[in-house]
Amino acid sequence: SENGKSSQCDWSSRFRDPSRPLVLDVGCGMGVSLLGLAKNCATDDTQDRKHAGESGNSTCQSPSSDIPMNWSECNFVGVDLSRLAIRYARGVSERWGLGHCLNFVVDPAEECLANIIDSYPGEVRLVMVQ
User: Fold this and answer.
1) Measured between alpha carbons, how far is residue 122 from residues 5, 76, 96, 116, 117 in Å?
2) Which of 87, 107, 110, 111 has minimal CB crowding within 10 Å?
3) Contact 56, 40 (CB under 8 A)
4) Distance in angstroms (rounded) separating the CA atoms of residues 130 and 25
5) Burial class (CB within 10 angstroms; exposed 0-12, middle 13-18, buried 19+) of 10
6) DSSP letter at 19?
7) Are 38 and 101 spatial neighbours (Cβ–Cβ below 8 Å)?
């Protein structure tokens, strides 16, 4: 939809592989957190990694958890009520080539969460609430 509403979600049109684990950021604002996490799943990230001196294996272990996260193998959804912030986040995501793994929606948190619980085909790996 024009607003990117999750209530009308067709996951296969939003992600290249909708079975990948999902990372959700509720109250994402301009998407800074998700953009940072998703940058490793760019379609043409070889040059970016070479330029940044990264190895490409972006596994990070949370200090409070024994569960390693391989961010490059995840899909990402950011949800916020601010259309302006979401437009900004979408613009950066498009410029960085992250459209296949990162999606931003303007939606109330409750509706987005209910839709994901009811319909997301993969595992919800992490939910961040701002």
Assistant:
1) 19, 12, 24, 10, 10
2) 110
3) yes
4) 7
5) exposed
6) T
7) yes
Query: Distance between CA 120 and CA 99 in Å, rounded?
Result: 17
Cβ partners under 8 Å of residue 113, min gap 6: 24, 26, 127
How far apart are the C-alpha atoms of 51 and 29, rounded to whole Å?
Answer: 28
C-beta of residue 125 within 8 angstroms of C-beta of residue 69: yes
Q: How far is CA 61 from CA 8, 13, 65, in A?
A: 34, 30, 7
Backbone angles phi, psi at 104, to 5 degrees: -120, 140
- Give pLDDT, residue 113: 94
- In this structure, what are the phi and psi dihedrals at residue 63, rounded to the nearest 5 degrees? -65, -25
Nearest to 96 by CA among 130, 55, 52: 52
The tens place of each residue's pLDDT in the chain, 130 residues long, gives 344 444 457 899 999 999 999 999 999 999 999 999 999 876 544 334 433 444 444 444 444 455 678 889 999 999 999 999 999 999 999 999 999 999 999 999 999 999 999 999 999 999 999 8
